[in-house]
């Protein structure tokens, strides 16, 4: 039986890499949900495409129903979206959530890099933290992902840290984050009820090299 996966914010850059990894997998049934669905049907001809808004309850409820894994790759009112996703999944009895937030939400970045990150992201960190708090208080089997500063490099190397551990890596490729997400989809028992930092191994410093 194919695993039914709903991707919210499927037009996002990380999501596009996840789609590329999964689009030809016979044991996966993809549903791609986005406000702007342009190009999705061409990228993944076998996927179901839904044009919708996470903050429109009927759009979200209809998409979530019958799914097994929900992967959310969203921006904007991220805390409000997290609340709606939790409510919709709990009502539908869908348990497994993969949700992208931001590094720095737990003040987990030591030293100058932490100070720089806080300055750069600013008040958005509060919204990302609130989203994580909502998900962590839910009954879902969640994995919250906190990626480092993102690059478009064609590489898949990553290392992870758990909540409560210091976060030191200054960058990570979107393709590498996608590789981690696909690994979770293929092994849904991994990193359950976890908040996971993800960064490129060996690239540490006071700020990302591209700044």
TrEMBL record:
Signal peptide limits: none
UniProt superkingdom: Bacteria
Gene3D superfamilies: NAD(P)-binding Rossmann-like Domain
Protein name: NAD(P)H-binding protein
Native species: Chitinophaga solisilvae
């Amino acid at each position: 039986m194919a695993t039914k996966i709903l991707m919210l914010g499927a037009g996002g850059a990380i999501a596009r890499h996840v789609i590329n990894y999964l689009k030809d997998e016979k044991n996966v049934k993809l549903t791609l949900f986005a406000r702007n669905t342009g190009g999705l049907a061409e990228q993944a001809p076998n996927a179901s495409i839904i044009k919708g808004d996470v903050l429109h309850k009927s759009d979200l409820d209809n998409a979530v129903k019958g799914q097994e894994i929900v992967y959310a790759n969203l921006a904007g009112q991220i805390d409000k979206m997290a609340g709606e996703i939790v409510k919709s999944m709990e009502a539908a009895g869908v348990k497994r959530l993969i949700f992208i937030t931001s590094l720095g939400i737990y003040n987990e970045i030591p030293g100058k890099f932490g100070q720089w990150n806080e300055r750069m992201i600013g008040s958005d960190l509060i919204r990302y933290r609130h989203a994580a708090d909502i998900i962590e208080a839910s009954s879902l089997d969640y994995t919250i992902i906190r990626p480092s500063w993102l690059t478009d490099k064609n590489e898949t190397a990553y290392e992870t840290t758990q909540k409560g551990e210091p976060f030191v890596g200054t960058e990570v490729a979107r393709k590498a984050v996608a590789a981690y997400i696909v690994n979770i989809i293929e092994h849904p028992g991994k990193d359950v009820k976890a908040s996971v930092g993800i960064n490129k191994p060996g690239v540490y410093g006071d700020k990302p090299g591209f700044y």
